Structure formats: structure tokens, C-alpha cells
Amino acid sequence: MKIAVIQGPNLNMLGIREQHIYGPMSLEQIHEQMKAGAAQNGVELEFFQSNLEGEIVDRIQECLGEVDGILINPAAYSHTSIAIKDALSAVNLPTIEVHISNIYKREEYRQKSVTAAAVTGVITGFGPFGYHMGLMALTQIISEVKA
Ligand code: DQA
User: Fold this and answer.
1) Homologous superfamily assigned to 2-146
2) Does the model's pTM come out above 0.95?
3) How far away, in angstroms, is 140 Cα from ligand 1 center?
4) Parallel, antiparallel or unpaired: strands 121-124 and 2-7
């Protein structure tokens, strides 16, 4: 089973940016932990991070026929990007959206995710552990689809 992990803008700054919100772990550290967990379950992960909306759209489109599911944190684009939402709808793969922080506890402009309307489920507010939760959920959903 293959899963694409897609990380949106400024997530390359994890460990540096607003640690009181996002914690001290870097994106590389989060990915290393995910890799270890996935390997135990025979899951292959493909990591991608971009600060550019169009590159994220391109990456989502490439997922078609290449991977079994998508784990995505569209970051700030969650709140604005119809293009990313449309790309997710177009490929129509099992997809989990993850947010490190609880977007419902934050500024009003973060409380709406437009991309969430195109995904299977959303995990928000559990810190980096949300990526593990998302991976567990996605692995289960994909096995059900394949069964
Ligand atoms: C985020 C929440 C977004 O509002 C913000 O723009 C991010 C990260 C999160 O993971 O909590 O960059 O997606």
C-alpha cells in the first residue's frame, strides 16, 4: 500500500515557527516517525512539501494511479484554495486532512476549511500525533476499499 503525504506552505518551518502552537518537532522529525510506523504495517510513504499552490495541485493530480490514498495538511491553503479542493475531488482517492492545531479554537478565518469538503475525514488539534492518527485511519480505509 502506497500513501502520498502532502504538506502545504510554511510546514517546512515546523520546529522554528510559532512553537507554542505547532510544537518543537521539525517536519523531517515528524516524517521520520511516520516512516517508522508505516514500515511496521507494510505501508510505503511518499513525502512532498511545497509553499506553492500550483505545485500542490500538480502533486495531487500525479497521485492518480500512483498511490492508494493521500494524507494532506494543506496548511493556510485549507482556508482559501478552491484549486486544491478541486484537485482532491478530481482524483477522488481516500484522503485524510490533518491540522496540527485545533483550527476551531483559532482565529475565525482558520475555522473554515474549504478543502475539507473534498476529503474522507479531518483530524485537527492533536499536534504531530495527528499525522499518525491520519495514517492509521487511512490504512484502515484503504484496506476496506481493497477488500
Ligand atoms: C495548520 C493550520 C493553518 O491554519 C495554518 O495556516 C497552518 C497549519 C495546522 O496544521 O494547524 O499553516 O494547517
Assistant:
1) Dehydroquinase, class II (3.40.50.9100)
2) yes
3) 25
4) unpaired
